[in-house]
């Protein structure tokens, strides 16, 4: 999806031959330091200046720690936030930060050489790393570094701002020390298969490790001081500990606390049937500038609501779910469960999406396949989800994903909803991992809603190349799936609800509706017209219900009736 989730690349330190020679000769060089101050915004906006009062320090969303910058463009003000750093002449510095939002810029001015900048068209629902380098001139001792958004765009967020290079003598943020042990560890919310573990936050922590019976089973980040532990056995006692960590390392574990699950849980019961033609929408379990919603706020036009996203655990393949109560205005787990139950009573399917651009779940062997099936089923029992969505954007293993989904189906029964959201490249050939998985589980698969956005040009089923943003791109690529073995009822068209919902590839609801007409009725086609019609086409999908609401529900109010009126 476009939740563009950041692709964090490991930083490799390479010594050139010259550097090796210098070391061999005994020449010592000082290590690079971060010359930016308060780059994590843990001290509010200290050391920062934002134009027109457009900046504020917030506690959510954060990439790490407990603070981040939120800056909101207004009118002709692009919400530029900057600070002046002290640098060393004739030196090279690496400028980087984590950002979230649309059209976010990072740059440096006054370098004495070539000023630099970089930007992203959009990070959707997740954090994205921006990075660039600059060199200072022979007389340069100070450089202004900055970030800003763009006119008419919503607020953007910044965290972990750094300028690494030689120490210019202006001072740096003091390095962290290993955090202490969390206090106040407690267990609550016991059910047959899960419980909630909470603790008091440690101020210097960037995250926490969770231990179950002495084995590390999870990592908690983003400022949270609690987690839901799922996949447990009924009527069983477990011992838990928590440790805090930061850049200096992991601190000591908390005192152990025991939690006991309740008796056998009968589960939520079968879910409602998905209608012949269905509208799918992804619901954001985070605040990224789109309208914050509760499940009860989602438009009744949506037949399948995909909750985004499940979280990885320390166990390969296993997932959990943590409701972002703070980011969603105090939305409680009890309210969330009640809203899911109400949607199901209204005939809607509420499923849990696994992956997204930042997803780290990997299923590469039988053990991890079993872990996925077991943990997903436990979450279905705990929250009332009626199925899962596979949105693994780093690829998947068709053998073991098939095993996991069939195992889950054997547990959940015939009412299980399984959807998939591959990228366009994943469905160009029936030999691809996603396509193979879809065909492997064709008898239990609900729908594949391919993402027709954030894509380069792709081949259509006629062998011609089509560019995103047109009715031909939607119809010619859908034809590959329709002629490649999937039933028309298992094919949907996935698009952003508004231009803010994706980095590229937005099309108007009119184009979506024309594509639906073309595929089902043979009318309103572009230059590509399929050789036959597919009246059983399942429908359409959007990222996201939140961006749809932000745009006045224009997408669902137009595409919803079209989908529900298909032949």
Automatic annotation (TrEMBL):
Gene3D superfamilies: Galactose-binding domain-like (2.60.120.260), Glycosidases (3.20.20.80), Immunoglobulins (2.60.40.10). Residues 249-271 are annotated as: Disordered. Residues 178-267 form the Fibronectin type-III domain. Keywords: Carbohydrate metabolism, Glycosidase, Hydrolase, Polysaccharide degradation, Signal. SUPFAM superfamilies: (Trans)glycosidases (SSF51445), Fibronectin type III (SSF49265), Galactose-binding domain-like (SSF49785). Residues 256-265 have a biased composition (Low complexity). Residues 277-567 form the GH18 domain. CDD domains: FN3, GH18_chitinase_D-like. Residues 1-24 form the signal peptide. PROSITE patterns: FN3 (PS50853), GH18_2 (PS51910). This is Chitinase.
């Amino acid at each position: 999806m476009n939740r563009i989730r950041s692709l964090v690349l490991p930083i490799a330190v390479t010594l050139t031959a010259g550097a090796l020679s210098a070391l061999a000769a005994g020449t010592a060089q000082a290590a690079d330091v971060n010359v930016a101050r308060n780059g994590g915004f843990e001290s509010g906006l200290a050391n920062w200046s934002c134009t027109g009062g457009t900046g504020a320090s917030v506690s959510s969303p954060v990439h790490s720690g407990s603070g981040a910058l939120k800056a909101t463009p207004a009118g002709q003000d692009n919400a530029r936030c900057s600070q002046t750093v002290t640098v060393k002449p004739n030196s090279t510095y690496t400028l980087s930060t984590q950002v979230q939002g649309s059209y976010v810029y990072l740059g440096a001015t006054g370098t004495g050489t070539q000023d630099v900048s970089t930007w992203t068209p959009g990070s959707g629902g997740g954090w994205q790393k921006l990075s660039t380098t600059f060199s200072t001139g022979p007389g340069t001792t100070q450089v202004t570094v900055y970030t800003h958004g763009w006119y008419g765009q919503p607020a953007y967020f910044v965290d972990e701002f750094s300028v690494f290079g030689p120490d210019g003598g202006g001072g740096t943020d003091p390095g962290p020390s290993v955090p202490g042990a969390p206090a106040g560890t407690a267990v609550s919310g016991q059910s047959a298969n899960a419980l909630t573990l909470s603790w008091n936050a440690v101020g210097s922590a960037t995250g926490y490790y969770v231990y179950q019976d002495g084995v590390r089973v999870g990592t908690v980040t983003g400022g949270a001081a609690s987690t839901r532990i799922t996949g447990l056995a009924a009527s069983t006692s477990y011992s838990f500990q928590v440790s805090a960590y930061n850049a200096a390392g992991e601190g000591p574990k908390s005192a152990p606390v025991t939690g006991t699950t309740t008796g056998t849980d009968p589960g939520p019961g079968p879910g409602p049937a998905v209608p012949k033609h269905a509208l799918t929408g992804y619901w954001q379990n985070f605040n990224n500038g789109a309208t914050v919603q509760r499940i009860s706020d989602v438009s009744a036009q949506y037949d399948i609501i995909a909750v985004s996203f499940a979280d990885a655990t320390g166990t390969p393949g296993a997932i959990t779910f943590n409701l972002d109560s703070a980011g969603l205005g105090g939305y409680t787990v009890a309210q969330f469960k009640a809203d899911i139950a109400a949607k199901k009573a209204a005939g809607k399917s509420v499923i849990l999406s696994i992956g997204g651009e930042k997803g780290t779940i990997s299923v590469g062997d039988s053990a991890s396949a079993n872990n996925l099936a077991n943990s997903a089923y436990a979450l279905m029992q705990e929250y009332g989800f009626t199925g899962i969505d596979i949105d693994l954007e780093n690829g998947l293993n068709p053998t073991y994903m098939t095993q996991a989904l069939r195992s889950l189906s054997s547990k959940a029964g015939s009412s299980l909803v399984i959807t998939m959201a591959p990228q366009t490249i994943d469905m160009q050939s029936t030999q691809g991992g996603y396509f193979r998985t879809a065909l492997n589980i064709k008898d239990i698969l609900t729908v594949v809603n391919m993402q027709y956005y954030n894509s380069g040009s792709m081949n259509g089923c006629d062998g011609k190349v089509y560019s995103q943003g047109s009715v031909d791109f939607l119809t010619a690529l859908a034809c590959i799936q329709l002629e490649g073995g999937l039933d028309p009822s298992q094919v949907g068209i996935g698009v952003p609800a508004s231009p803010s919902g994706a980095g590229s590839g937005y099309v108007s609801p009119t184009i979506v509706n024309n594509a639906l007409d073309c595929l089902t009725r043979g009318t309103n086609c572009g230059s590509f017209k399929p050789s036959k019609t597919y009246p059983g086409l399942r429908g359409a999908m959007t990222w996201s219900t939140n961006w749809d609401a932000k745009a006045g529900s224009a997408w669902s109010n137009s595409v919803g009736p079209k989908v529900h009126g298909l032949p």
